Amino acid sequence: MLARKSIIPEEFGLPGLASRMPRKPVFRDRVNKARFIAKNGSCNLAHKNIREQGRFLQDVFTTLVDLKWRFTLVIFTTTFVSSWLLFAMSWWLVAFAHGDLDPQQRNRTHCVTDVKSFTSAFLFSIEVQVTIGFGARMITEQCPTAITVLILQNIVGLIINAVMLGCIFMKTAQSNRRAETLIFSRHAVIAVRNNRLCFMIRIGDLRKSMIIGATVRLQVVRKTTTPEGEVIPIHQIDVQTESAVASNNLFLLAPLIICHVIDKNSPLYDLSAMELQCSDLEVIVILEGVVETTGITTQARTSYVSEEIQWGHRFVPIVTEEEGVYSVDYSKFGNTVKVTTPLCSARELDEKPSILIQTLQKSELSHQNSLRKRNSMRRNNSMRKGAGSSGSLRRNNSGIASPKVQFFTPGDGGQTLNAVT
Q1: Does the domain made of 67-172 have the CATH classification 2.60.200.20?
Q2: Helix, coil or strand: residue 259
Q3: Whole-model pTM?
Q4: S-S: 178 plus which of 174, 298, 367, 394, CB 3.0-4.6 Å?
């Protein structure tokens, strides 16, 4: 059975009208891109399918230092216990070969006194290697083999102590521990400074001991494609900072604002405010220096993705002078305020300088208008207060009752009383 044809044409039906109605563009959230450097400075990189694993064993010391603490402690304990057991077996074999374990040979001079079982040999091995020396067990001159084992155990014990204790010391004094007190602002900002569009971050040191020869490097990491069609997933581009123009060292006594002028050589030169939010770039910040107390070189890292870059903001000042002392308020370390900033790219500002002038003029006019509104509001409030005080006086005066005056007029039939208020 055929369906009945509608009287209304299809183009005027609800589906047809809905298809011809203009739709607003739908902005979808960009898929979160994997960070190359995490906010805490760790590298977000996984190594897979490494075939030459033996290269790590060629540098045992660095491998032990790079291991986690739980693995280091397990290796530390296992190494010492294994060496004690190995040389305990050697001492037990020396005693067995000399006949010291035979009960019938107890009256003869032993290689090691009071070594009668494997347990006593294990205790003597611990005493020799850690130089405890309880005094009950000692080596005699009867066995040259025992003297050789004693020399070998002392040498092996010194090597194990040097490697393991040095490893633990290096893990305790690692440079990244000092980097925990080097802080970065949560967000980066882009604003106009000295009539140029600038990318800025804030860095600080929480300790009073300074970082000597501190340097800051900026790199932009993003996926690029060459004209030949080669895809570079991690393309690192160096970014010049304002401090590196004159001197590459920073005097990191108080929190500093690191400024990068977005010029022709900057990878941010062609990005506007809207394009920046849609891009997948990542700005890596690397702070290096020498620790004043230990002389060890330390490095602190962080990164900023496009969502963490605030366009048209500026960091609030946090250093004030109080009673002859400069005070730093770290509670406002990452606070920013909005400032008037053109939304176009730095290239457009260079090609059309009038954009910046017009933006600054508009901001000045808006600032003047806001001041006028504030002044007018203050005047209105003062006038209302004055009107309220005069009205209260009137109400108070009306509340006072006026006295009544009475006049008596003589009449024919008596007296007439007139009251005047």
Answers
A1: no
A2: strand
A3: 0.65
A4: 298
